[in-house]
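Q: What does the assembly look like in three dimensions?
Context provided by user:
Components: three
Sequences:
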Amino acid sequence: MPELPEVETLRRNLEPTLVGRRFAQVDITLPKLFLGLAGLQPDDLVGRRVERIRRRAKLLVFDLSEDLALVFHLRLSGQLVHRSRDGVALASGGHPVPAFGAPLPHKATHASFGFDDGSVLYLTDIRQFGRIWLLPAAMLRDFLERSRLGPEPLADAFSEEQLRARLARRPRAALKPLLLDQTFLGGVGNIYADEIAFEARLSPLAPVGDLGPERPADLYRAIRSVLHHAVTNGVADIRNGRTNPERDFPRVHGRAGQPCPRCGTTIVKTHVAGRGTYPCPRCQGYPPG
DNA sequence: AACTACTCCTGGAGGC
DNA sequence: TGCCTCCAGGAGTAGT
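A: Here is the predicted structure of the complete assembly.
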């Protein structure tokens, strides 16, 4: 599930509660989700301290003492919950099912990390697609480069000019598949791709080479504003594809049959790149032609 | 290079 | 109630 805003929110939540803590005990109950590089095993975490928590695209990266790194990818349904020795919620984030306040471990809790203060970090992942990598810090750069992730859309270094240059390299690609391509841009997933296309008033099927001179600027502003808004004001709240009608976000994703918040036209559901896609036919000129 | 289809999984929703 | 199908916020791989 979690896309850039959810992972960034999780990172900000965990930072104050985990940095400085030492691993005391590690329990991996679903072995396939743990990938130790250079022969590292889960128990190699014990005694290591969390020095820093970073994010790259949808990856959550723990820099550890003694030159190790622990990397999480929550994929579709992973969540992390950090609880104190007494079971008090310290921090949580990721996929909201099961509810963050539910008893832990849940039957889908596949890894737990105990710390020196008695607190525990639980990884719960119903669909088992999430992964954890433990690797030497010296391998982290290669590890990240191998996935060829595109630029960080919220970084200062990500400019409109950079976006234009990257669009120019893929002129025949349709907008939504390009936004989902992690080598084009790091961190956008299915919900935010729809929200960005809506904000920019662009069809998810529009070939980006046909946007004309002005629209890339709209797209750039939409990428920045949609992701920034989500990180700042709280993230998407969806349960199994159903939008929570109490919230104004997402504005179009999951809202087939509801009126467009801009023009009132009924939002439709279609499939683009094999993913459920929700455009406003009028605002976004969908379908084209 | 750039599509699609299939794969890894579980579980909730809705049709009958 | 049960059974069935479809769908779900990701991404790697294989085929065309």
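Follow-up: Residues 32, 76-77, 97, 108, 125-129, 170, 172-173, 177, 239-242, 273-274 of chain A lie near DNA strand B (CB under 10 Å from a C1').
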